[in-house]
Specification:
The protein is α/β, with parallel strands linked by helices. The chain has a single domain, classed as TIM Barrel (Alpha-Beta Barrel). The chain is built from eight helices and 15 strands. The chain has a ten-stranded mixed beta sheet. A hairpin with a 2-residue loop joins strand 7 (128-129) and strand 8 (132-133). The longest helix has 14 residues, at 81-94. The radius of gyration is 17 Å and the shape is globular. It starts with 19 loop residues before the first strand and ends with a helix.
């Protein structure tokens, strides 16, 4: 059986559906990725759910979908942070070990979320400090969570023809360009990568093709791509360009969140 350079079986990298529960101001929402602003807790909203986070966790649990991510979209200093966190904890309680969690994760709170039921914690801002990778902080969060429970979020935005990793709810550019060599450097420190293509996130108008092509050609640990899928044609293109090796998250385009793509059909299509 073939192994990658990082020791993961190649069969581990077959496209799977990774659902999402994005929480902002205490509500499950779908937002336009590049619109988040901490000041005033603002965001351009595609959908605001009348259901709580536990409803979606139960839905994913019944479908046997693992590895979905719960994302807290409020900063810790927001007056809405506690309401958002409470919703996240409801989801973890409803589907123990079935969901990952991200948003403000650090060594001091990683164990809280893992003990609350998260399978993994998702980290960006803590690891990328002052525009660069903080290897010291990466070691600290790896020690706190355990490599097997750590997902690095390498969400990025395009600038000058390159995809730069962004932090702080996608508001700050780092100096780190997402490349195969960066993936190689970081892969030994975590279990998976999550990559939101922020410029197309929440728009459901097509994927970031060069980014997908690069991620799909990289040989390493599992990668989940999110951003821009708005139709089954987009999914087919993602499968093709990503060599059927990228897990995928779809939010705004699903009928669960007011979009045109049927949730059950989407799950079946990806599983084919």
């Amino acid at each position: 059986m073939l192994l990658s350079v990082h020791g993961k079986k190649t069969e581990d990298r077959i496209m799977k559906f990774r659902p999402c529960i994005d929480i902002h101001n205490g509500k499950v929402k779908q937002i336009v990725g590049g619109s988040l602003k901490d000041q005033g807790d603002q965001a351009a909203e595609n959908f605001v759910s009348e259901q709580d986070a536990a409803f979606y966790a139960e839905l994913y649990k019944k479908a046997g979908l693992k590895g979905g991510h719960v994302i807290l979209l409020n900063g810790k200093d927001s007056p809405n942070y506690e309401a958002t966190k409470a919703q996240a904890l409801l989801a973890l309680k409803r589907y123990p070990r079935g969901l990952q969690i991200g948003g403000g994760i650090c060594p001091e709170n990683a164990s809280e979320y893992l003990e609350a039921g998260a399978s993994h914690v998702i980290v960006t801002s803590y690891v990328f400090k002052n525009g660069v990778i903080s290897w010291e902080n990466l070691e600290k969060i790896r020690n706190a969570a355990g490599k097997e429970h750590l997902v690095l979020d390498l969400s990025c935005r395009k600038k000058d023809g390159n995809y730069y990793i962004v932090t702080d709810r996608w508001q700050k550019f780092t100096d780190v360009v997402l490349t195969p060599s960066v993936l190689d450097e970081l892969a030994d420190h975590c279990a998976e990568f999550l990559v939101h293509a922020v410029d197309v996130e929440g728009k459901a108008r097509g994927i970031e093709e060069p980014l997908v092509r690069m991620l799909g050609s990289w040989d390493g640990i599992p990668v989940t791509y999110a951003g821009g899928v708005g139709s089954f044609d987009d999914l087919r293109k993602l499968k093709e360009l990503g060599q059927n090796r990228l897990n995928v998250t779809i939010g705004s385009a699903l009928d669960l969140f007011g979009g045109p793509m049927n949730y059950e059909e989407t799950v079946k299509f990806i599983a084919k």
